[in-house]
Amino acid sequence: MEAFERRKQDILSKKDKSSIGEWDKHIVRLCEIINLNDNYYTTSTCSGRIIVMIDQNKKAPGLFEFVSHEKVEFEKLKEEVSKIKEDSKFKSEPPILHIACKTLEDAEKLLKKAQLSGWKRSGIISLGKNIVVEIISTEKIEFPLFKSGKLLVDDDFLKIVLEKANENLVKGWAKIEKLRKSLK
Question: What are the structural domains, with CATH classification, of the chain?
C-alpha cells in the first residue's frame, strides 16, 4: 500500500476529535465525496459556527461558552450571554476544510474548483509529507463581548450582529453545496 493510502486509511479510521465529535450535518455530504476520491481525504472540517468564547490566547478545555453550527435565535444567544462572568468574545466563523492531496496537480485541481465555487481564501498550507489544501470562506465576525465583567454591547447591536452571523452561515452552506456539486 502506498504511503498516501496508508495515511488516508489511518486518518479516516481515527475517532473524531472535534468539539462536537462528528462532522457537521451541513458538510458531511461534501466530506463523503472528498473521502471517496482516491486522491484526497479530509483531515479537519467545519461548516461554520457561531461561538462565544473566553478571550485568551491559548486553546484549553472550557474555552467555549457557547457553540452552534446552526442559526441562532436572539433569545437563545441572550440566555447564553447572561451566564458569562469572564472576559469573552463573540465570533462567527466561516466554513473551513483541510484536505490532504495525493499530488500537487490534485491540489491545483481542487483549489480551482474551490475558487470557482466562491471560496476566496484557499491555498496550499503544507508541502511536507502531506500536501494539504486549506479551503476557507471569508464570512467572519469577531469582537469583544465582555470585559471586566461588563457587557460591551447592547441588545440592538447584538441583534444586528446575530442576524449577519446567521446570514453568513447560510452563505457558507451554499458554498459547501456548490463545491460538493462541482466535485461529483
Answer: 3-183 (3.30.1960.10)
Cα angle 79, 169, 56; round to 5: 60
Per-residue model confidence as pLDDT tens digits over 106-165: 999 999 999 999 998 899 999 988 899 999 999 999 999 999 989 999 999 999 999 999
CB 145 within 8 A of CB 151: yes
pLDDT per residue over 107-123, tens digit each? Answer: 999 999 999 999 988 99
3-class secondary-structure state, position 159: helix
Residue among 63, 74, 83 nearest 151 (CA) = 83
* Cβ pair 122, 92 in contact under 8 A: no
